[in-house]
Write a structure and sequence with these properties.
The protein has helices at 9-16, 25-34, 53-62, 75-84, 111-123, 137-144, 155-160, 165-181, 197-203, 214-223, 225-237, and strands at residues 3-7, 39-42, 66-71, 88-91, 127-132, 149-153, 185-189, 207-212. The chain is α/β, with parallel strands linked by helices. The protein starts with a strand and ends with a helix. Bound molecules: 1-deoxy-D-xylulose-5-phosphate (DXP) and ligand LD2JLWAY. It catalyses: 3-amino-2-oxopropyl phosphate + 1-deoxy-D-xylulose 5-phosphate = pyridoxine 5'-phosphate + phosphate + 2 H2O + H(+).
Length: 238
């Protein structure tokens, strides 16, 4: 069954807005686990505008599910991952000034770089995943880097869902099928929500994990974190 990794970036955004420690991100992660999350995702950005490098260290000490650390593998990110040893590193090609992640890797153009970074992580036993657009052509090159998984960048699925979910999901199915063919595990994330998750999870072959933050934490404002996590888990079960 597909695992739910809760992205807690937005908990850190709220904390940072007042400069103190409310809400506490470690407590939020532990509660998310207690309420059923099967993983915790963080995306420490270079400006540390939400998750800080120290948060990643603190989280790794206490969480009991998988820690998924996402980001652009700049030197400081690589050093942090090698120090903390998360269960999974997801490589995302985001620019320093990007509002949020806005594309997958061109795995053909960056194959050499990705291969080197992945070898570094794999030598330390860290599972690796490459964030990709829904483009089957990217899969062969992703597989050649030695990565374990790909993460489908689901923004275009989420934004196209209301207009026609069959059309919106088609390139994701083709890309996931190609990944399965090459022996890569499939993760997904970005703008997944209570509205669009169920169809995604039941249509994408071999979907191992989804990481969800923005919509889930927003839903929790109205529904509470425990109830919200249960609702997301239900979308993955039915
Ligand atoms: C890789 C990905 O899609 C998520 O990490 C997403 O970008 C969340 O990051 P922000 O919370 O910084 O928008
Ligand atoms: N990898 C995607 C992720 O962690 C969460 O993205 P979003 O739900 O905040 O858009």
């Amino acid at each position: 069954m597909t695992k739910l990794s809760v992205n807690i970036n937005k908990i850190a955004t709220l904390r940072n807005s007042r400069g103190g420690d409310i809400p506490n991100v470690v407590e939020a992660a532990l509660n998310a686990e207690r309420f059923g999350a099967q993983g915790i995702t963080v995306h420490p950005r270079p400006d540390q505008r939400h998750i800080r490098y120290q948060d990643v260290r603190d989280l790794k000490q206490v969480i009991t599910t998988e820690l998924n650390m996402e980001g652009n593998p700049i030197d400081s990110f690589i050093d942090l991952a090698l120090e903390v040893l998360p269960a999974q590193v997801t490589l995302v090609p985001d620019a320093h000034d990007a509002l949020t992640s806005n594309s997958g890797w061109d795995t053909k153009a960056h194959q050499k770089f990705l291969s080197e970074v992945i070898a570094t992580f794999k030598a330390k036993g860290i599972r690796t995943s490459i964030f990709v657009d829904p483009d089957p052509e990217m899969i062969r090159y992703a597989a050649e880097t030695g990565a374990d998984r790909i993460e489908l960048y689901t923004e275009s699925y989420a934004s196209g869902y209301a207009a026609g979910r069959e059309k919106a999901i088609a390139p994701f199915v083709a890309t996931a099928e190609e990944a399965v063919k090459y022996g890569l595990g499939v993760n997904g994330g970005h703008d997944l929500s209570l509205e669009n998750l169920h169809y995604f999870a039941r249509t994408i072959p071999n979907l191992l994990e989804v990481s969800i933050g923005h919509a889930l934490i927003s839903d929790a404002i109205y529904l509470g974190l425990e109830n919200t996590i249960q609702l997301y888990l239900r979308q993955l079960k039915e």
